[in-house]
Amino acid sequence: MGKYQLDYKGQAAVQKFHEKNSKTKTDKLAKIEALKKQYLSQKKKEKKS
């Protein structure tokens, strides 16, 4: 066991911090960004029509 143990709330905060500051994006974030790009491109097409 490590010297400093985190409770579940602390573990979640550390995980969120590392996800936010990582250079590579997680699958979930990449999927969300892909959906966002797709949605915005559809909106542009609808606006032009």
Low-confidence spans: none
User: Averaging pLDDT over every residue, what do you get?
Assistant: 83
Shape: rod-shaped
Task: Write down how many β-strands occur, each being a DSSP E stretch of 2 or more residues.
Answer: 0
**End-to-end C-alpha gap:** 62 Å
Structural class: mainly alpha
Strand content: under 5%
Largest β-sheet summary: none
State the helix count. 2
Q: Which radius of gyration do the C-alpha atoms yield?
A: 18 Å
Task: Provide the helix percentage.
Answer: over 70%
Order of helices and strands: HH
Protein name: 30S ribosomal protein S10
Organism: Lactococcus ileimucosae
Any overview of this molecule?
The protein is mostly helical. It is built from two helices and no strands. The protein has helices at residues 8-21, 27-48. The relative contact order is 0.08.
Q: Could you write a compact summary of the structure shown?
A:
With 49 residues, the protein is mostly helical.
Topology diagram in text:
Elements (H helix, E strand, L loop, with lengths): L7 H14 L5 H22 L1
Features:
49 residues; mainly alpha; 30S ribosomal protein S10; 2 helices; single chain
